[in-house]
Amino acid sequence: MKVTAAVVNGEKRDFELEEIELDAPKDNEVLIKLVATGVCHTDVAGQDGLTTPMPVVLGHEGAGIVEQVGAAVSSVKPGDKVILSFSYCGKCRNCLEGHPGMCEKFNDLNFAGPNFDGTHRMHKDRHDLSLFFGQSSFVTYTVVDEHNIVKVPDDADVDLAYLGPLSCGLQTGSGSVLNYLKPEPGATIAIFGMGPVGCRPSWGLRSPKPAGSWSLTSMTNASPWRKSWAPPMSSTARISTWKLRSRN
Ligand SMILES: [Zn+2]
Ligand SMILES: [Zn+2]
What we know:
CATH topology of the largest domain: Quinone Oxidoreductase, Chain A, domain 1
Structural class: alpha+beta
Number of helices: 7
CATH superfamily of the largest domain: Medium-chain alcohol dehydrogenases, catalytic domain
Bound molecules: zinc ion
CATH architecture of the largest domain: Alpha-Beta Complex
């Protein structure tokens, strides 16, 4: 099928909106109609040619609707709302121990360019286009492996536009604190930088698990508008270095 993608055709080149060809999903794959996507600094690294062979369709914070599923797909059906995340093999030791982010094939599956089985679904003028993070969400439709999908609950009354960043920024920030740092109740945490990743651990304060008993200090050198945007419900103290930087 014909779809529209923001293609990067060479290192440091601008995004170019192009009509490309998208193959049908194979047995293990799902066709997704993208509704929204975030933009992460890793997309810029990809645009600079630091991660993935060109030409490439970047984007790795996608959210959308399932359009079609392969014969072996069991976790979603057409019409389901889904969030797209990174790809992992599901078979290596790290995956089996519950750490898919440490998958031994992470680089191959997320940055090398092909889909899960080593072939491509996106083409332009008989050339293959690289897949990025297993999803390439800067496109109107994409084909991803079932592993990449997290289903949004049927009864969740939520705009998918808010969920795309769960794919990277939110899980990176929250996961770093909740799953690895694992602060004890009463601990004080300082977070440097209030971007999409830095803001997210603060959301953990609202989750029932850490008991909401952390003291969270967020440090930012961002402008006043960013400071006001950083979730006020999050930090017990916020320190801005903006004025110090401006004075220098
Ligand atoms: Zn990212
Ligand atoms: Zn793995």
